[in-house]
Amino acid sequence: MLNRIRAEINPRFRPAINKLNFVRPDKNSLTKSTKGRPCRLRSILNVVRFVVRTQISARAWAKNEALGQRLYEAVDQQERETRIRRMRDSWRAQMQKKLAINSGPA
Fold first, then answer.
1. Contact 32, 39 (CB under 8 A)
2. Model confidence, pTM
3. How many CB atoms sit inside 10 A of residue 12's CB?
4. Core-most of 5, 11, 29, 88, by most CB within 10 Å?
C-alpha cells in the first residue's frame, strides 16, 4: 500500500511497484469475507460509523464548550464590575478626604 502511494507521488519509483506481486481485488471481494479476515464492506461501514459518532460527539462537545464560554464571560464580567466598584469607592474616599482638608476647620 505504501509503495503504491510512493509510486503515485514519484514516477521514478514505479519499477519497484512492478516487482511487488500484489493482486487487485475483484468486485465481489467487497462483500465476501476471506479466510479469517472480515469483509471490506464491514470495515468500511465501521469506519463510517466511527466518523459519524465522532461528529455527533463533537457537536455535543461544542454545546458544552459554548456553555463554558458563557460562564467564563459571566464570571469575568462580575470581576470587572467588582474591580470598577472598588476603584470608584477608593476615588470617592480620596475626594472626601480632599474636600475635608480643603474646607478645613471653620
1. yes
2. 0.40
3. 8
4. 29
